[in-house]
Amino acid sequence: MLLLYRMYFFIRYFKGRQSINCPNCHCRNTESVLKRNGNFFVYIPIKEQLRQLLSNSVFHKLQRTCNDNNLLSDVTSRKVYRSMVENQVISDFDITLQWNTDGVNTFKSSKVSMCPILIAINELSYRVRKDNILLAGLWCGSIKPVVDIFLKLFVDELRDLHKHGIDCLPPNLNEAVNIKVHAILSPVDSIARCSLQNIAQFNGKFECSLCLHLGQHVKVGNGYARVYCGNEGIARTREQHHRDAEQAVVKNISINGVKGVSLLMLLTTFNIVVSFPPEYMHAVLLGVVKYFFFMWFDPKYNQCTWYIGSKKSIFNDRLLNICPPCELTRTPRALENMKLYKASEWKNLLLYYSLPCLQGLLPIRLVMNKLRPWAPPTTKSLDPQFLDKVVQTLFPPEEVGWEQEFRTEENGADK
What phi and psi values does residue 262 have, to the nearest 5 degrees? Predict the structure, then answer.
């Protein structure tokens, strides 16, 4: 039987009492008032959920090995995971988790939103993993989750599972096994990452969570944006981040973009820097890909060499004649609806539709002739400098403020 706790913002139970005092503001509140105002969230302990899940056939679907050292197919094939296995941080029966939290609007006419904590087991294949997602918590209200309050019970339980594990009896085994649980990954979007790491927001100085690039505040269009041009900054490290967090608390100022400590720093196997992977939805799909197509088809670029807006009808005919398989949940829409495209539609456009639909429309032969002197001898690995040259040839800097405008991440995602 799963337990479900309704936690009030004071992180304490009423336990039969009619009212309690807030330890911070010292005001007195009743349970009915807090419930009516939505000042609570739901927490569902994951220990019993994992015990039930691993006590059935899912246990025998766990995969911890990757035979090809050069193959990067999932979390378990990455260098970090392999290193933890080699150093016996992860033993034979242990599992690792990835977790995510993100806000979801409940109604168009209301400010109320929900924010769940979702958990997946890395050792399960993708097809099995997505059918066994666990719900650890649910924040519902008109204000954004207070990270230290919302994650307190979650972090405490993860620390306990890392140290003591859970005992369960998988099918076809004669005795119970102890399975320790390690949280190693949190793929969240750019906005949530800032709150979880307690660092500057994506439009601030030192906003990159992976390096110490200051950025530059420049004018873009009718507004301003912080851009990250030139060489990469010095890579952040876990130790340096912890020092910056401690100094930020002592001095009450932001240090290298770090505003203070985070509860996640208490997790032994969770690296506050690299456990948050670059988030490609905003950076690539809603950033670079969207920007490319607007530059190709937006009439304001009609004097530029890359503009192909006059051929939009040809592109639309090709696009709308595509009948994608059922694995793609959205069918193609005409370019007139570009402003309404979802991230998944930009992904489909990038991976599946763009090459056949753009064939013969872009002056690609001229571009490739210009790039021939810089082309690498093989295509196994592309030089980043060559890729920069490709884009700058497609969009000449003298026709668009390339260094200033294109490298701006539209929604503040990673460089």
Answer: -130, 145
